[in-house]
Automatic annotation (TrEMBL):
It is found in: Membrane. It is a multi-pass membrane protein. Its main location: membrane. Residues 20-70 form the TM2 domain. GO terms for cellular component: membrane. It comes from Sphingomonas tagetis. InterPro entries: TM2, TM2D1-3-like. The chain crosses the membrane at residues 21-37, 57-86. This is TM2 domain-containing protein. PANTHER family: BETA-AMYLOID BINDING PROTEIN-RELATED (PTHR21016), TM2 DOMAIN-CONTAINING PROTEIN DDB_G0277895-RELATED (PTHR21016:SF25). Pfam families: TM2. Keywords: Membrane, Transmembrane, Transmembrane helix. It comes from the Bacteria. The keyword Membrane applies.
Length: 110
């Protein structure tokens, strides 16, 4: 491995370390800002994060009309499911990041 390859490898590793997602941060966001889609924004899932945010806001605004209860219940169930999906979302994000940085598929070795 020559100096250029080593430099590129170090640069890729630094980029990966700076951009990878953390399970701890994702779960803190899920716990405190889950109903606003905070954990999904963090994980780059903007579309579903906006859906959670809008469902929560509309649910709270229409709570008086009973329909809001169903929206908030739906968001609550979604958040419960997300608690189990977060590790997979993090793994998927980090594997895609590693693949993008190395220019090819990355194998996960255990």
């Amino acid at each position: 491995m020559d100096a250029t390859e080593r430099s590129e490898l170090v640069r890729s590793q630094l980029m990966y370390d700076a951009s990878r997602k953390s399970a701890g941060i994702a779960y803190v966001l899920w716990f405190f800002l889950g109903w606003l889609g905070g954990h999904r924004f963090y994980l780059g899932r903007t579309g579903t994060a906006v859906a959670q945010l809008l469902l929560s806001i509309v649910g709270w605004l229409t709570l008086v009309f009973i329909v809001g209860i169903f929206m908030l219940a739906g968001v609550g169930i979604w958040l419960l499911v997300d608690a189990f999906l977060i590790p997979g979302m993090i793994r998927e994000h980090n594997m895609k990041l590693a693949s993008d940085l190395t220019g090819g598929p990355v194998r996960l070795e255990v």
